[in-house]
Amino acid sequence: MTEFSNNPYYDLFSKQSLNQFAIGNRSYKERLNTLNKLQKAIEVTYRTQIQEALQKDLGKPVVETELTEIYAIIGDLKYTKKHLHQWMRKQNVETPLSLLGSSSYITYEPKGVCLIISPWNFPFNLTFGPLISAIAAGNTAIIKPSEMTPNSADLMAKIVSDIFAEDEVAVLQGDVEVSTQLLKLPFNHIFFTGSPKVGKIVMEAASKHLASVTLELGGKSPTIVDKTANIDKAAKKIMWAKFLNCGQICVSPDYVLIDDSVKAEFITSCKKWLQTFYNDQAKSSDSYGKIVTDKHFERLSAYLDNAKSLQATIEVGGQTDSASKYIEPTIISDLKPEAIVLEEEIFGPILPIVTYKSLDMAITYINSKPRPLALYIYSKSKSNTNKILNSTRAGGTCINNSVLHYANHNLPFGGVNNSGIGKSHGFYGFKAFSNERAVMKQHTFGVTELLFPPYTNMKEKLAR
Ligand code: NAD
């Protein structure tokens, strides 16, 4: 009997635990083989089913699925496969003179049994992304996908059971009850993607066993548009980034901070681009999705009601339809500071516009809130851009674009404090799932012989 015997998932956990060294000691070629199997499943075998599942769960247009889920995962797999051999190599490091006679290196060894808890907004990308890093680094993994996108969760369970034995990778479906039980087990690493609120619960649970964590969280990502920016281009890119996946993206521009003098021009351009993107008919557009659940639809509708009750100006949109969980792309301005859309992460297709009279005011506003996952700067001024970069902190930044820093595997992805702990993607993801083991090897006689007593006068002199 152990303290975990009554845990419904302990049996599975134990199987993975017993198997971890066999998996961890697999060669580069064997790991590559596993990654190839996953690639074939996503790229060929299940491609159409992934599109269908996302259509059912999120009304996701096929092109969006291809770009933000399938292409993203395949890109990640290709990048990982290209670099894995180098990442797995032991890394020799210099040895100081004081340790003469020895050599030192770092090995990236697997952490062991890992837990991956994922959200619903990009169910495949945000589940298989961390899984790619986990298996590249030689770990076993239990995955708990979000219950909010059940068709996607079912399909991921099928894909995983096609490729892996359960003592290597397994999917457990369910809601908070399942997560809560899983979080009681002594995982070696927990990779959580979701809200800051649940991130705190995960971190607290991890602390019981001192499991390491990667927390990929969310928050309010600001977008600054200064008066030197190309306003029309900024509006186009912001409209795309904001209303992609109906704003249900962790790095979505949460709100726009704009120089007062260019606000009217910006809103005119936004209207133009929205009309171009969705032909003024977002509801029937094949390029626009829906809100994931009734609960989230109600949450977002309440944000709109709250803004209206505070006499905000609805610049664009504002229409909703509960039956189809539709919320029109909406832009709001003239908001009072207490408006909920200025306080909580929106995670939906509502864009508040806040004006500023000086860049310092914009910076002060950003720094009055928790540190964001992303911060976007639209500006032609180098000094303004540098001033913003030097006076704020954020997980990542795009200059004169939004969201796309996520797509560069050479960059670490993750937040800072409230928006996350640790980084993912590419080598940074591999590192998150690896223990950097420090190894020092003593060869023949070395200076370290001087460490041993008796401490003669000569040794004392040498030590000084
Ligand atoms: P969430 O935190 O509600 O849920 C995420 C996962 O945690 C789900 O699998 C859910 O079942 C589980 N969960 C929920 N409550 C739990 C609890 N009390 N204990 C343990 N597990 C629990 O988040 P969500 O609604 O799925 O996703 C939206 C949030 O995720 C937003 O804040 C968004 O910014 C963030 N997010 C971050 C990233 C990133 O990469 N940084 C990516 C996508 C989403």
TrEMBL record:
The keyword Oxidoreductase applies. InterPro entries: Ald_DH/histidinol_DH, Ald_DH_C, Ald_DH_CS_GLU, Ald_DH_N, Aldehyde_DH_dom, Aldehyde_DH_NAD(P). Signal peptide: none annotated. Transmembrane segments: none annotated. PROSITE patterns: ALDEHYDE_DEHYDR_GLU. The keyword RNA-binding does not apply. Pfam families: Aldedh (PF00171). The active site is at E216. Keywords: NAD, Oxidoreductase. Residues 24-439 form the Aldehyde dehydrogenase domain. Belongs to the aldehyde dehydrogenase family. This is Aldehyde dehydrogenase. It comes from Winogradskyella marina.
